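Thread amino acids onto this structure.
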């Protein structure tokens, strides 16, 4: 439980609980509910894009199932790799430590997912599904791009319900006041920070609106996905630099997700340019 406010906007304070309700004594987190809703909405939106592209809905269902499974695995592995010391069990025998380490790694209900890992694994899964279904890969990526960025924009509110994914202290008008529940019925450690979850959510949802607006007017297959690479890469590179919980590249001072975001943005610009030039040359020939 924590207390949150947005003093610059005159909102709050109010209490937040990461648990929505319990089922037979087991807590159901708002995070899981929000992520699940984001996935469902992304799938429904993807159906409308698939219809435009002439892709069968059954094929999209199969694609979605693989994306969810491998996306979760990838998101977990990405997080664990760059936080490995937190998951390695010590203090027991070899097999005991090995078993506890594996248990720590698979215990996603304790938190620890990174969106870039999900994107990378999903990209790979989409390639093989597209190949198996004999669907042009860039068409699949164009269908997925607006669906994924919409899900990202919605999913970031799951971070809000957990009181996580925020930035350093600030006096910005958009600052978020945060108090942690310290037990004994009291709050402590009040800070005012950048609500980076909100920044990324708004950036993603704006990107979704733009992609939706020009989807039917795209000039070549892959254009929507390349725009996603540029848009999300640029926004994430800036926002990641504000965060206070970044994953770092193996003991260096390099924020791994910020570096990856920059590389994705640059790659998107290059691909967008190359394909646009090829399209123009084909029209002139």
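Threaded sequence (285 positions):
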């Amino acid at each position: 439980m924590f207390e949150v406010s947005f003093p610059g906007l005159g909102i709050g304070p109010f209490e937040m609980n990461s648990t929505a309700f319990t089922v037979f004594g087991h807590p159901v987190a708002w995070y899981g509910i929000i992520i699940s809703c984001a996935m469902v909405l992304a799938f429904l939106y993807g159906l409308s894009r698939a219809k435009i592209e002439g892709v069968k809905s059954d094929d999209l269902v199969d694609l979605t199932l693989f994306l969810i499974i491998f996306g979760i695995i990838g998101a977990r592995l990405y997080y664990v790799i760059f936080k490995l010391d937190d998951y390695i069990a010590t203090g027991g025998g070899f097999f005991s430590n090995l078993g506890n380490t594996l248990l720590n790694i698979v215990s996603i209900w304790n938190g620890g997912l990174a969106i870039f890992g999900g994107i990378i694994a999903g990209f790979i899964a989409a390639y093989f599904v597209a190949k198996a279904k004999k669907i042009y890969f860039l068409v699949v990526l164009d269908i997925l791009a607006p669906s994924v960025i919409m899900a990202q924009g919605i999913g970031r509110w799951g971070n809000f319900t957990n009181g996580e994914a925020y930035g350093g202290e600030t006096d910005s008008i958009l600052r978020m006041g945060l108090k942690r529940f310290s037990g004994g019925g009291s709050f402590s450690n009040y800070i005012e920070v950048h609500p980076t979850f909100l920044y990324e959510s708004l950036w993603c949802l704006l990107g979704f609106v733009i992609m939706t607006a020009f989807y039917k007017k795209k000039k070549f297959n892959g254009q929507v996905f390349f725009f996603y690479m540029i848009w999300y890469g640029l926004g994430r590179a800036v926002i990641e630099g504000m965060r206070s919980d970044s994953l770092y590249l193996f003991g260096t001072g390099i924020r791994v997700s910020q570096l990856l975001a920059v590389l994705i943005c640059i790659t998107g610009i290059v691909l967008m340019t190359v394909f646009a030039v090829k399209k123009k040359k084909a029209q002139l020939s």
